[in-house]
Each structure stands twice: as structure tokens, then as C-alpha cells.
């Protein structure tokens, strides 16, 4: 009976440890602070693509959303309010705009907001606003949407959650000039975020990564329901379709083995993208195939914008270190080394505390033995008191190490802020010197 209870206790501890490891992995996946450099690059490219989309609408705006558009306001509204099917939550105030002047003013405002989103001006406001305006156009243009519209929209949605204006932007240029306000005001710190690692950057990154995995998984499963992807003719039907053909690829008919291999490989890649993109060993190959597939779609099937945007979205799996300067990478490595050293000390302290707790538990079990003599009981109690005192010292050491780790992180943050201030001062001096040299040259 005692053996059964011990076995149950052991398996219970094993389940608890496994659950704890899963919880730690979940926490690391979602809430490990990450630098926003990759997101900042994607912001520029996605903003440029969204701006292009609005400029295309502007080429014949009233035909798209005007009072006499190809799809009228009443028709667009009825596609969502239940007149032609199930009612949904999609709404747009563009259904009620009839004046061409108002429509043009609204579209000019949309283009301006999207341009600010691209260059990174007021990104905390302009990106959510650009997302809202995009949704209004999508709900107005129902029936005339393309995959490009969808991917630009959801990428913008996830970027709105992140400090993607902290680098390569007007906001990043303004921040050093308002460093005093940013240090003293939570509002300005939010409006002009720095490029330090943040949970928000990681959450936005993970959401976009998972969204891509879902898209490819269901896209691959949808393809697998047909026959052409299994018998290897799907690529042929794509490249020989004159409606989409931008380059004549019908010469591939002479190489049916290549067509079949491309079809089967594409199906395999799309279905298993969600599994193979995460391991570091397979990720470069998966991204290389993504680049080849979407570049081919853009080059050979006339969908340059869609293919380009899918390549941009896949860039979310690139490390922020690829877009950092050498000095920034060195600072990150030094900070990581300090924290890793402290983590090792903390782990050792935790292991030592666990050993002492186990020793104390064994002593308590021995003290419960009624056959112990008085001298042996006294000796065991003395030993237990020593273990408790040692455990208290370990706990104090653990708390001290955690405080030192927090100080390291705060110190690194201050050093980065000081570095930014110094760079700003040096740049101002250079500007004044160049201006003075210019004035003396004129004289």
C-alpha cells in the first residue's frame, strides 16, 4: 500500500514538473522581451504597399467608391446587413458618402495617414487609424477584394500592437530631441517608444507568425482536397493560364517531371510550413522555398504585389539582429552574458535550496521514530537547525542575486539612453560646426 502511494506521489510530481515546464515554455514563447527591428522594417514595406493600394484606388476613385460606382453603396451595404444572406458585423460609413468632393477629401486624408504610417510619423496613432480606414474601404469594396488586401490588413493590425515606430522612422528621429519629456512622461514614452526589448514586440511578432502558419496550413489542406496537386499537374494549369500569365512558361510542357515535382513539393511545403518553420535547422529552407514560391507567383503569374507582400510577411521569422548595428549587437551580447551569469547563480541557489529541503524532510522523518534515544534525537534536531540556517542563507543569497539581475538590466537600459543622448549631442555639434564652416565659406 505504501509502495502504491509512493508511486502515485512520484507520478504526481512528474506531472507537476511537466506542467511547470510547459508553462515556462508558454511564457517564454509569448512574453520574452524582443527588439522591434524586424517589425520596424516590415512597417516600412507594409506601409508602402498599403499606400500603393490607395494610390491605385485614386486612379479611378469614383468608379470604386463613388455614387455611381461599379458596385453601388446600396449593394455593398446589402452584402453585409442580411439582405442577401447572413448578417455580419462588417460596417462602413463609406456606404453613406455620395458627394464626390467629400469622397476625394476622405481619400486624400487616407493617403496622408498611410504615408505617415510608412515613414513612421506618429505611429502610435497613424497605424491604428490606417487600419480603421483600410477596414472601411474593405467593407465598401466587398466583392472586389484580393489576397493582397487581406494580408496588408492583418499585417497592419498586428503592427498596431507593437512599438514598430521605434526604429527607421521620424518618431525615432524625434525621440532624442524630446528625451527629457520621454523620461518624465509615460504619455511621451508611449508615443515615442525606444527600441529596447519589449513584450509588446514579441506578442505582435508571435501573432503574425501564427497567422501565417494558419494561412499556409489551411491553404495546403484546401489544395489537398483536389486532384491536380496530387497528380502533379497543378503548376502546369497555373503557368499555362493566359488570364494570369505574365511570362510564357508553356515550354515547361516538355518537362512533365519538373512540373510534377514542383506541384508535389509546393503542396508538401504549404501543409508542413506550420511545423518546419519553427526549428532553426529547417527554418532557412522553409523561408527559401517561400521566397521562391512567391517570387514565382509575382514574376510568372502577374501577381507582383501579392507575391511581394507574402515575402514581406515571411520576413517576420527573421531575427531582429539582422537589422541591428554591430554596436547594438555587442551591447545585447554583453547584457545577455551578464544575465546568463546571474541566471546560472540563481539556478545553483535554487538547486542548493531544494537539496536542503530534501535533507530537512528526511531528518523530520527520522525524528518521528519513537525508538530514538534522547541523545540521537538531540543530535538530529541540532543538524536540522543547521540545515534551516543554511537554507535561510541560500534564500537571502537568491534574493540578492535577483536584485543584482534587476540592477544589471536597469544599468544596461541607462547606458543605452546615455548612448542615445551622447549621439544626439555629437550630431548637434557636428551640425553647428558644418553650419559655421558653411557661413565662413560664404564670407
Indicate how many domains the architecture comprises.
Answer: 3
Termini separation: 102 Å
Number of strands: 0
Largest sheet: none
Output the structural class: mainly alpha
Number of helices: 18
Write structural notes for this entry:
The chain contains 18 helices and no strands. It has 3 domains: 30-197, no CATH class; 223-324, no CATH class; 326-368 and 381-420. With 443 residues, it is an all-alpha fold. Residues 5-11 have low confidence and may be disordered. The protein is 74% helix and 0% strand. It has helices spanning 2-31, 37-58, 61-65, 73-78, 100-119, 123-140, 147-159, 170-174, 179-184, 186-191, 199-224, 228-231, 234-239, 256-276, 283-300, 304-314, 326-367, 374-442. The chain crosses the membrane at residues 44-65, 104-133, 255-279, 285-318.
Keyword list:
443 residues; 3 domains
List the helices and strands and how they pair.
Blueprint: H1 2-31, H2 37-58, H3 61-65, H4 73-78, H5 100-119, H6 123-140, H7 147-159, H8 170-174, H9 179-184, H10 186-191, H11 199-224, H12 228-231, H13 234-239, H14 256-276, H15 283-300, H16 304-314, H17 326-367, H18 374-442
Question: What's the short version?
Answer:
This protein has three domains: 30-197, no CATH class; 223-324, no CATH class; 326-368 and 381-420. It is built from 18 helices and no strands. It is extended.
